[in-house]
Amino acid sequence: MKGLGELERTVMEVLWAREDAGQGAATARDVSRALASERDLAHTTVMTVLDRLAKKGFLARERDGRAWRYLPVASREGYVAELMLGALNETGDRDAALAHFVRSVSQDEAAVIRQALADLLAGKEPPA
Q1: Rounded to whole angstroms, how far apart are CA atoms 74 and 52?
Q2: What is the largest CA-CA distance in the chain?
Q3: What is the pTM of this model?
Q4: Could you give the 3-state DSSP secondary structure of residue 123?
Q5: pLDDT tens sequence across 67-101
Q6: What is the Cα–Cα distance from 107 to 94, expressed in whole angstroms?
Q7: pLDDT band at residue 123 using 50, 70 and 90 as cut-offs
Q8: Rounded to an integer, what distance in angstroms lies between the CA atom of residue 53 and that of residue 41?
Q9: Is 75 helix (H, G, I), strand (E, B) or coil?
Q10: How many beta carbons lie within 10 A of that of residue 113, not counting itself?
Q11: CB atoms within 10 A of CB 71
């Protein structure tokens, strides 16, 4: 999965926040309103960014009258995990990079990693 540009990331954050709040799919107008307090963007710019994100596979969209409603294809956590895997692929020594990463996490984060590995080995499904 490719990285997001700064404006794309900002738009995705709006959509992920809506999803986290249980608000569901958003129109370009919804996203424009959500961004109005922090960014002065033309509505057409927001529409273009949403269209581009849909074409890149980050968003699913469905018709709602004359408008489109957009929904993230993956969660924020899923996206970040893809970025981490991409970064890991950039190294010549994945094992060394993983070991360095694990040594740099906090005790609480190490406990999360241990639990995820235990669940994986036990054949449990990861949480959604």
Answers
A1: 16
A2: 53
A3: 0.80
A4: coil
A5: 999 999 999 999 999 999 988 989 989 999 999 99
A6: 22
A7: confident
A8: 17
A9: coil
A10: 12
A11: 15
